[in-house]
Structures are given as C-alpha cells and as structure tokens.
Amino acid sequence: MKQKLRLGMIGGGPDAFIGAVHRIAARIDDCYELVCGAFSSSAEKSAKTGAMLGLSPERAYPSYQKLIETEKSLPEDIRVEVISIVTPNHLHFEPAKMALENGFHVILDKPITLSLQEALALEKIQQQTGKKLLLTHTYTGYPMVKEARQQVLTGKLGAIRKIYVEYPQGWLSTAVENKQADWRTDPSKSGIAGAMGDIGTHAFNLAEYVTGLSVTKLCADINTVIDGRRLDDDGAVLLKFNNGASGVLMATQIAAGEENNVKIRVYGEKGGLEWQQVDANSLVIKWLDAPAQTYRTGGAYVSSFASHNTRTPAGHPEGYLEAFANLYRNFALTVLAEMNHQQPATEALDYPSVTEGIRGMTFIEKVIESGKSSQKWINF
Q1: Are 200 and 232 in contact (CB under 8 A)?
Q2: How far apart, in whole angstroms, are the C-alpha atoms of residue 33 and residue 80?
C-alpha cells in the first residue's frame, strides 16, 4: 500500500513566502516527500534553495521545463508524482499544462491562471490527461468553514436569503511596495485585476463554497485609491445567486490597520451563521427564535467534514497553516486511494479544483467588466 507521494515544486525560492507555506502544509500530515524543485528562474538561486531543503543537487533544476523533462525520464519508483506550482499568476498555465501532459498531478496556487481563456484551456488538458488538480483556496480548509457548509447544505438554516463576505487588508495603503506587492500590482504578471484577483477571488470562493450556491449576476464598484497604481486596490460587488438570494462582497487592500480577517455571514429563513479568520475555531449560529450557539473546532457535535479536517483536541487552536495542510492532505488521500485501487472517502474529495478555478477567473473578468461599464449589472 502506497503511503506517501513524491512532490516537486516550481517556484518558492528566496523571498517567496507562499512557497514555504506550501512546503509546511505538505509536511504536516507526512503525506508527501519533497524530492525535486525548480525554485527560481535563477539557476543559482534554485540550487541554493534545493541545498537548503536537503535535495540531491541534480534534482534542483534550473527551469521548470528541465524539471519535467528530466523527472519524466526517471524510473517510475523514483520520479516525482505531484508538482506544486507556486509562481506568480502569469507563470501558472504553461508549467501546469506541461506537468499534466507529462503525466503528473498538479497543485496550483490561486487564481488558477492569468486569464479565463487559459483556465478553460487547462480544464480541457486536465480532462484529457485524467490527472488531478488541486487549487489552493486556503480558507475552505478550515474545519469551521466546512461545518458552516454542512449547516447550510443540510437545511438547518432553511432557504438562504442573504450572504455577506469580506476580505479587508491594509498592506497596500501606501505607494511604498515590496517584492510581494510588485508583481501583484503589475498587469503583466497579475492579470486584469489587483485586489479583486488576489483576495476578492478568495471571498467569492468562500461565498459559493459555504452556501453551495452559484453567482448568476453581479454589479461591481472597482477603485484604484493609490495614485499611480496600475490595478484595483479596493472594491465592492453586489451579487445575485441562483436561488434568488442576494449578497455583498467587499475586498480591499487599502484598509489601514487591517491584516487578513476574511469573514462570511450567511442568513436563511430559520437562522444565520458567522465565521471569521480572526477566531477561526468558532462558528456562530444565530436562530430566529432561540439563543445563538457557538460551534467549536474539535467538538463532538460537529459534522464528519469538520472532524475529518481537525487534528488537535478542542481548545487547541488550528489556523492558516493547518487549513492549507487540509487541502494538501485531502488531495493526497484522493490520489493515493486511486493508486491503491480504493475509493476515497467523501470527506477527502472535498478540495477545490479546476471548476473553482474557472469560477474564480469568470468572477475576475465580470467584476472588472462591470467596474468599467455604465451598464453595471452583468450576467455571470
């Protein structure tokens, strides 16, 4: 019985904080072994990162093309099996395409590609190759987010009427930028959206994931507050869902003093719920005719989806890294089940993939289209 997957990484070299997050997430449950990487466009930096991570020198590659070509030629019991791509947006499609076409499963940072056209092309490639793809929409990995989804899907709140979701940040409140901000505010590397592409997609994904609903129309107000910035750094969107519910989405990176407190509130006929990352272990359920309840991570009363994604006893905080690791673990459990000719558990199949990637890219394109248009309501 195969127990662990051999992992390779494209990107994630010096000063790339998200690469380290991915590596930590992959290690938490011991489902992966990092065996190779092309960590930088600089061969020297890639080699140094490989050495720091304890890789064999010959498997720290100078380019992603060299990594994929060489690994494909290695014996089956040695070569990499899953490739994690943690590069800026404009370097998602080509490495993912090449990895899938050469027989490797793919883990891809969000948004899935630079454009909707690329996302649709990648979906076709993934379907043709039969390989699996994980898209790291981190916040869906939290146990209490999964519990929130189960509360909605099992009908406890009744028909959903209203959704509020927000993601406020303050790190781009001035024109002074760093390496992380540089590519995120560059249209050639980030795409047509700034804040809406970077964090608005997280808020959008969270709204659809928790409710199980799909956005059908939107109306966007998109702003660039800092003079000289080439992409949006602030915005708000009115949403219409396929069951008739309405919603409001806010994403901003110029809310001075804010960190990363992504938050969602959902209201139905019988009650509502509220979750926020600043208190990620708590899910508040509010009833129309009874006192509010607070569900806690690790409680004996939570759903199998929440307990499946919980590692520690109640009262021991689990956070961002563990949520990230839940995505990696569920993906590994699904891939390993297939390799071992088994059926993966339903809970393990609960991870974002190409479908969510296409929804996210559609959101970006429609938000920017609406933001620029005088005809504000646009069909999704």
Answers
A1: no
A2: 9
